Records
---
Amino acid sequence: MKYDAVIIGAGPIGSNVALHLSKKGFEVAVVEQKREIGIPLKCAGLVSKRVIELSGISPNKIIQNELYGAYIHSPEGRVFEIESDRVQAFAIDRVLFDKLLAENAQNYNAVYLLNNKAYSFEDGKVQIKSDGESGVLQYKILIGADGAKSKVREFFGFPDPKEVLLGVGAEVENININPKKVHVFFSRNIAPGFFAWIIPTNREGTEARIGLCTSTPPPKPIKSYFDMMFTNPLTEPFLKGCTVKGLLGGAIPLGFLDETAMDRVMIVGDAASQVKPLSGGGLYPGLLSSNFCSEVAEEALENNDAAKKILKKYHNLWSAALKREIAIGMRIRKRFLQMDDSQVDKYLSYLNDEEILSIISKYGDIDYPSKLAFPLLKNIPILLKFLPEIMHL
């Protein structure tokens, strides 16, 4: 069982690498510990147009709903409406999204080994185990796309994420909300260290994905915060009488990693902490980085040279594209964590300003929130005191 590339993790990031390499004729194996791709769901599934374009999947197959704006709920219960005349994001069927990417890779003969746990990666060999039976895969290049708690990252001593969030949520039905806008809730009582959300997932506003993230460790068990979404005065009115179809959740790594490639090994996606710090979204940075990973792996395999000096090109490429955005996001997040609810409420109150709302409508970009940060800093003088720290990268 010899392969040019062995990929650990059959999420969308791992499958995207598998697709690109198998398309080029390389022998690729993907090892996944789940029995079924995409299940259980671990993502809110709110993405930009760029994500759909990077995936190469037909939008008609995966888009559940189009979102034009948001309701921002402050800790004190004030609601600020942000709207646009253009689509800002899409709610997608994440399970189907994962499955279709894997199917595309398999169509080019990538081998998927489901229900297999990888537990050793020494000497160019991956030890795998499934239901008590073990096997060995030989590789020229190993790619860790195995999520926030990556075994590949741990085994090879790559840096750990600067921070890890905990997330929990669910798919719900029998609700009645505006189908064109997301609800975002800021309150330490609801989601300490982050925020909660309600994302309408159909065009009638009767189904949604709800959830929240917290800093680690949360003051109370994270499931208790999820349960409180159904009783908290800020969130309860939107969820009253709804039916919970299934829980989702997972860990979200934050912070730039200084190293993501070494001899014969690369890590990508959540394993490489390629996540937007202000939203916790990892699909866009992960898919973008997986393209760089695929390009460098292809070059290394063609030249039969997977030394660190060759694979480091991948690290340099994705860093050039995303490091600044991640760094700015982490700086802003650091300030956010220092604020109590009254301070958060104070700063959210600036959303009452029509000029500010027009700036958000003009510059808002869920993949590059820094494009919005600096116009806001310029137009809200009190925020300028944050500028030196944010700019000092």
Note: The longest strand covers residues 133-144.
---
Amino acid sequence: MSDATESGVPTNQDRVGTVAIVAGTAVSALSVYLYQVIAARTLGSELFASIGVMWTISFLVFTVLNIPVEQYVTRRLTLGGGRWLPDRDAILIVATPLLAGIVIGAVFVAATLDRFFAGSSGFVVAAVAILISRGLLTVGRAFLAGRRRFTAYGAIVALEGVVLVALAIGVAATSASALAFVAILAISPLVVVLARPLATTTTEMPMLADSIPAGAGFLGALIVATAASQIILAAEPVIVSFVGGTATAVSVVFVTFTLFRGPVTSAYNLIARVLPDFTVMASAGDDHRLKVWAERIGIAGVALAALFGAGGWVLGPIVVEVLYGAEFAPPSVVSGLAAAAVGFALASLFLNQIFVARGETGRLAVIWLLALLAATVALFVSTAEPMIRVATAFLVGEAAALALLVGVSVFAHRRRA
């Protein structure tokens, strides 16, 4: 993939930025694992369950509502040559999902205090603080990506992870409580202010044509698509409880799925590098290149699913036990199914960007709703124990999504040709 300059020739700045994002993503992924290992080994499986649920809530809000906002702003800035012209409608489009996420997260935590959080109201306050800070992170990252400040983007991603681990070590050594481990999740995202993302940039970028208006309907459909995809990807720790799993099962599913989901979680940083280039291709009407990328990504997804699945089946329980302790080790079938699903999910995340770049978020929403339906049917048809049920549903949903994303991308191109 070439960098999205007007001439199509990669610049040194973009090359350095790409390396920075990849390096920052690696640091971030390792930091997430270290944070969870520190918390799990400090608290044990019972107390760690509240962290698993809080992490899941904040992750779902961030990926369902905040990431679409980041994509919307990134695409808008890319098409506008890095300029954000005063527009009250656009500001409202951005602010509404961010505020909704704060409210939804706080209400969910308040409603489940006794079930997941030992009745402590401090978790509600922590949830609000976490979602506010991650909202600020969302806007900051979007401006960095949309203005092709990829080096700064990568640095912020890395620094956020380093700060999180440092705070976790401090909590483990002093006030080792579940609430303290949760509270520090609100601090690390604030490092984004160090990059001054809203500062005026002197880098010149060309204005691009946009044949599809990207307003509230664009973002609304993208949020629907993302919501369906994230329910499939990340809701398992909550779902396993509602289908009969114990608190220990919640912790096992959380650490296992989060561990294997690491490549997808990390890839949210990488799509900030991909979306601007896909947007340039879509703006230029280069459907052939987008089709080629869709086919390549689809093939890679199938290969990754096979590789990850085999590795997860054989090594998954061993790796989880080494990192978190024997009480967190999952059955081999659960880790194998979850790892294979991650291979499909990783490819699907990048395929999503083709639809976003083209402005086809309505079509993307339909695809992910169909995939969610497939996962739901698999969940309720299965008569296995709770952890296997959610792992099976995860795999079915991700496989269905990948097949639909590739099929629609290729079909759409042929119909236009």
Note: Residues 12-79 form the longest helix (68 residues).
---
Amino acid sequence: MLESWRAVEDAIAEGRASGVSNYGVKLQELIKSKPRIMPVVNQIELHPFNIRKEICNFCQQHCIVVEAYAPLVRVLRMEHPTKCGIGEQVSLHTSPTTHPLVASVWLFAHAEECDERTYNFENRKSSHFDISNEDMKELDSLDECLVTGMSSNYSPGG
């Protein structure tokens, strides 16, 4: 892994922008042990059902931007009662936009960026849709380490 990162550092030195994807704390620690250049971005699956707290904290401590992908949980939890309940509290009616809005407000509080293929992060920044601190804590409690992508050997700290 360290050898691969050296190749990325060479590309950065040649003027290309780069980051990592799905790097847990252990891999980031390995890179950090002997870097010429630290990653600027770590793209990870991030949503209320997979909050990746340890990885997000590591990134924040080392000025690595967290870019989220699959923020809408690939619609696997579209009808989750907690998300629907929060959506109904802040919306006059339940609509197809409730799920993405609740997810986006949660995401905005936990990540700096979002993969534009899955969600337009700029829309959230200009939105007037907010969730109380109590509701945000309730969403944070939904973490079940749910991985919707191809990574089958995920570990919460890893």
Note: The helical segments are 2-13, 25-33, 53-61, 81-90, 98-110, 121-125, 133-140.
